[in-house]
Amino acid sequence: MAERLSPGDTIGILGGGQLGRMLATAAARLGLKTHIFAPETDNPAFDVCAAKTVAAYDNEAALQAFAEAVDVVTYEFENIPAHTAELLAALRPVRPGPAALAASQDRLTEKDFLNDLGIATAPYRSVEDAGALARAVGELGRPSILKTRRLGYDGKGQVTIREGSDLGAIFRGLGGAPSILEGFVPFTKEVSVIAARGLDGAFAAYDVTENVHANHILSVSRAPAKIDADCAAAAMATARKIAEALDYIGILAVELFVTDEPDENGRLVQTIRVNEIAPRVHNSGHWTLDSAICSQFEQHIRAIAGWPLGTTRRHGAAVEMRNLIGDDANAYDAILREPGACLHLYGKAEARPGRKMGHVTRVLDHDG
Hints:
Elements: E1 10-14, H1 18-29, E2 33-38, E3 51-54, H2 60-69, E4 72-75, H3 82-89, H4 98-105, H5 107-116, E5 124-127, H6 130-140, E6 144-148, E7 158-161, H7 167-173, E8 179-183, E9 189-197, E10 203-205, E11 209-214, E12 217-223, H8 229-245, E13 250-262, E14 268-278, H9 288-291, H10 296-305, E15 318-325, H11 332-336, E16 341-345, E17 356-364
Parallel strand pairs: 1-2, 1-4, 2-3
Antiparallel strand pairs: 5-8, 6-7, 6-8, 9-10, 9-11, 9-13, 11-12, 12-15, 13-14, 15-17, 16-17
Helix pairs in contact: 1-10, 4-5, 6-7
């Protein structure tokens, strides 16, 4: 199996949501085919791929046939079973590799990995039972956030512990699953770095992006983030350190908190702590579709194909991306009439509260 793909080769994508859809579209633009593997029958990515397999992620016969039909495997979300990644990695290159999945699927493993690299995070404790939760709260204080170690996203699988919170009820409410308690970080901004590392070790990062969440779901992303140059450089250097430690190939998203902390002279300076990493293309990088010369989706395809990375240069002075959540997508007609607005709808049949239905990007001729 060639390390480097050629036009006409096929990329296998695990997962068929909007990220898979946009990856498949980017691949087609570069003359590459995509084969989507997903357990659901109504995936948005199925509308734009060359082939599809509808099967469970633990269906070994289906995975074997899928591997034989593709030249490289990637994924659009990180909750792929470890056994699935290992089985496929024995048959075809999997990019990013299983080590990246292992580091990001378990919040405790992720925090340990980052701290071992000397990268600052929120303070944290492992929570295996209600007694451990009580001890952890005693050490980290309130407010703090209890999160399940696995399968949490968009605010799912987590709860804030405040004064008066019933710790036993909270732990039971999360199903008694192995969890992690994170201390509160008094952040001033939430930012992310969308970066890529190629098969040859080349590294490229987009402008640091500032993110605003509503109801635990990303609402708005703006680039470049309004942070100082040293803070932005530190965020990018942190992303590179993580990518190199994982021998990473593809797009990596690193979410960070920005805090104001005193330096040795007592002056407040912006510092960063990593919140979490995502081994995939990321919602906060959607602005690159319309506002960068090479989007995060094309960049990911280039990287896993073993091709040269593209430029991350941004169009315009600044850019804003806003998610269309639930019924927000019904405003598509008004958005289409708005000069300069770039609309993306994901082809989902049903709008539900909290469901990402699309996004709109606006390129600005000023600094936002």
